[in-house]
Amino acid sequence: MPRPTMTLADVVSDMRTRGMKATNKTVSDGIASGVFPFGTILGTGVTGRRSILIFRCDYEAWAAEKLPT
Fold it and tell me: Which of 15, 24, 25, 40 could disulfide-link 20, Cβ–Cβ 3.0 to 4.6 Å?
């Protein structure tokens, strides 16, 4: 059974598999700006790194609509 959440690396890897050019930074920035609605920024640490929560069901629904399979 798949985990209910995904890492940023999981999302980037899946996007690339589906033919979308993506990097950790572009996806993280897209989540922060609301372009990618499947994730939430939980906060930014002292080092400037973002904590991101991505639910698999939200990503998969978005990907099914927006990305080729």
Answer: 15
Which tokens hold the place of 50?
Answer: 């973002």
Q: How far apart are CA 3 and CA 56, in angstroms?
A: 8
**pLDDT tens-place string over residues 16-54:** 999 999 999 999 999 999 999 999 999 998 998 999 999
Tokens at 34, concatenated: 């609301």
Residue 69 has pLDDT above 80, yes or no: no
pTM for this predicted structure: 0.91
Bridge-based pairing state of the strands 39-44 and 5-6: unpaired
1 vs 57: CA distance, rounded Å: 13
6 DSSP 8-state letter: E
